[in-house]
Specification:
The protein has 94 residues and is α/β, with parallel strands linked by helices. Helices cover 22% and strands 14% of the residues. It contains 2 helices and 3 strands, in the order βαβαβ. A 3-stranded parallel sheet has the order 2-1-3. The protein is globular, with a radius of gyration of 14 Å.
């Protein structure tokens, strides 16, 4: 099962550089620079960067290939209720 994680850009870069410290995370993504996509746009962005595009979908509906399992964890964002954790992402708060 793939675990796809969204993080703030600087922390996503850190996790990519220290991949061995986070073995369960398959890939790390972040929103494009200076753009906040929200959960729906962020999900599409993650799938697109992970290589799942409408051209790779099967059939007439937008469904991933049958044997693929992915968990997308949105940990990027403004964290308005938890501003102290906005810099590392909500998924890494204690």
């Amino acid at each position: 099962m793939d675990i796809l994680l969204t993080l703030p850009p600087h922390f996503a870069s850190y996790v990519r550089k220290h991949k061995s410290d986070y073995p369960s995370i398959t890939e790390v993504f972040s929103d494009p620079d200076n753009i906040k996509l929200g959960s729906g746009g962020g999900t599409v962005n993650v799938l697109w960067q992970h290589g799942i595009t409408p051209a790779t979908m099967q059939g007439d509906h937008l469904a991933p290939p049958v044997n693929s399992k992915r968990i997308i964890i949105h940990s990027d964002g403004e964290s308005r209720r938890l501003p102290a954790y906005a810099s590392v992402g909500k998924g890494f708060m204690p």
